[in-house]
Amino acid sequence: MPKQPDFDVAAAHRFFSARGFNQAWDFIDKPERSPADIDDMLQAAHASAWHWRQRPDCTNDKLSVSYWQLSRVYALAGESQRAARYGALCLEASQGTTPFLVGYAHEALAQAAAAAGDRAAVLKHLALAEACLAQVNDPEEKALLQKDLAALQ
Question: Virtual CA dihedral for 19, 109, 144, 43, nearest 10 degrees?
Fold first, then answer.
């Protein structure tokens, strides 16, 4: 049996869940990504998701955001099936949370459908996301979701 490490494992999970998320986000924000960037983006998002799942404070809200990011990076990488898989997990995790998170789950599924070239599915998930958007009360959250949905139009 492996011995206990000489560092705080919970602190390591907190650190790496956030660091992986932020590093993946840096790649998401790049206007162009090399094949190495795409690989690093995918690895960072997966590392973040894994570390989140190890944390005692992992909730469906956190899982929803983590799965959303995985869906987004796969859509950006042109891997529509994996983007759809993580979009579906995002939607599942977001059930019973907030309209903002449910709206972003549909945004993820719309992004996955766009990567697959399925315009009908894009429109379906945009409509569902717009219905969620109407229920978002926080002005900052509303503006953020609205901007991302507009980019898919």
Answer: 10
